[in-house]
Amino acid sequence: MKRLKIAVLFGGCSPEYSVSLQSAAAVLQNMDSSKYEAVMVGISKMGDWYSYTGPIENIKNDTWFDPEICTPAVVLPNRSESALLVFGQGAMQKIRLDAAFPVFHGQNGEDGTVQGLFELAGIPLVECGVLASALCMDKDRAHKLVQTAGVAIPHSIVLEH
């Protein structure tokens, strides 16, 4: 049986970077390798994307970035190709993807930005799409929306500075 290639993204420029690493390590350690092939994509705190081929333990303890095993990568925006482009020394590799699993927490990943990139590229997501992700990051608007649908919400106030 053909294993599906799933891009598992972790890290990112968010204050919750380290939480993403822990979550991604848990996802990777628990993926059924008989059904799925993980394509690990680490995003630095500065926002640079890399194909990562090292041990999962290094993600968990935040020692994953190593220039010897991390190669710059980007998502190919062509909907007809659904791929990650990896820029090795003197050559480019195209890794076809069946889906993407962004394992992020906070802004610049959990807020719909990365989901939009994958939706534009035609790569299915293993999570919420753009609208649901963006709405869930804005708790006030999410509460107002579900309240109009008749769902009870806790009393709250919004403080702005």
Characterize the structure shown:
It is a single chain. By secondary structure, the chain is an alpha/beta fold. It is built from five helices and seven strands, in the order βαββαββββααα. A seven-stranded mixed beta sheet has the order 6-5-4-3-2-1-7. Strand 1 (4-11), helix 1 and strand 2 form a beta-alpha-beta unit. The longest helix has 14 residues, at 17-30. The protein is globular, with a radius of gyration of 17 Å.
In short:
The protein is of the alpha/beta class. Helix content is 29%, strand content 26%. The chain has 5 helices and 7 strands, in the order βαββαββββααα.
Indicate the structural class.
alpha/beta
Percent range of helical residues:
25-40%
Report the sheet with the most strands, covering strand number, pairing sense and barrel closure.
7 strands, mixed
Mean pLDDT: 90
Percent in strands:
25-35%
- Series of secondary-structure elements, N-terminal to C-terminal: EHEEHEEEEHHH
Query: How are the strands ordered across the major sheet?
Result: 6-5-4-3-2-1-7
Distance between the termini: 55 Å
| Low-confidence regions | none
Q: Which geometry do the CA atoms define?
A: globular
Count of extended strands? 7
Number of helices: 5
Radius of gyration: 17 Å
Secondary-structure blueprint of this entry?
Elements: E1 4-11, H1 17-30, E2 36-43, E3 49-52, H2 56-60, E4 70-75, E5 83-88, E6 91-96, E7 99-102, H3 113-121, H4 130-137, H5 139-148
Parallel strand pairs: 1-2, 1-7
Antiparallel strand pairs: 2-3, 3-4, 4-5, 5-6
